[in-house]
Design a protein that fits this description.
2 domains, three-stranded antiparallel beta sheet, about 10% strand, globular, DnaJ_domain, stress response
């Protein structure tokens, strides 16, 4: 698995929360992290990577005194059997609360398995599997994705405006597809590096 713990590697195609909220969780980052690791191990998960913007020491544990994070999102990557899975959360103001939300979600899914509905759990997990592009599909250049002519001058402001326009049409919640949104996000990242 190619995910890195720092900085945050948000899964492609997953929308970001624009307005985080307070949570009712009462936990520390260390307890939430230990809890999510325990839940994943109980689930049979391996190769666990908790990716966030929290800087880590050489032993993988976070530095104790870090400034407030601008982005408290977290993505947890792991393998289960032959599947690569990812859970991500940025709904809450605190990193510990986002980790705890993932822990509680995995705990609930483990409950489905314990209560005898493992087929249902496999179907639920298929939604968390990392989407892979079909090998035969040619990856389009960012200019093709956005509809720009070759050599056309594009400003960063125009790129952002066009990204928002296309995202409003291609997002799965707006009638688009995961594949189209993933392609748009990839193209946007590529374009930002070149504009």
């Amino acid at each position: 698995m190619s995910a890195q713990a720092y900085p945050l590697q948000w899964p492609a195609g997953w929308p970001r929360c624009q307005h985080p909220i307070d949570s009712n969780f009462d936990t520390s980052l260390s307890k939430a992290t230990a809890g999510v690791l325990d839940e994943i191990r109980r689930l049979g998960g391996t190769n666990i990577v908790i990716s966030s913007n929290m800087q880590l020491k050489a032993d993988g544990m976070p530095y104790a005194r870090q400034m407030n994070l601008d982005d408290t999102g977290v993505a947890v990557y792991f393998n289960r059997g032959n599947q690569q899975l990812c859970f991500a959360c940025d709904r809450y103001y605190l990193l510990a609360d986002n980790v705890q939300a993932i822990r509680k979600t995995i705990e609930a899914l483990r409950g489905i398995e314990r209560w005898g509905a493992s087929d249902m759990m496999q179907r639920a997990f298929s939604g968390f599997a990392q989407l892979q592009a079909p090998a035969a599909q040619r990856e389009r250049n960012w200019r093709e994705v956005f509809g720009y002519m070759p050599g056309e001058t594009v400003s960063l402001e125009r790129l952002r405006t066009d990204y928002r326009h296309w995202a409003s049409k291609l997002h799965p919640d707006k009638g688009g597809s995961d594949e189209a949104m993933c392609e748009l996000n990839r193209a946007y990242q590529q374009a930002q590096g070149e504009v």
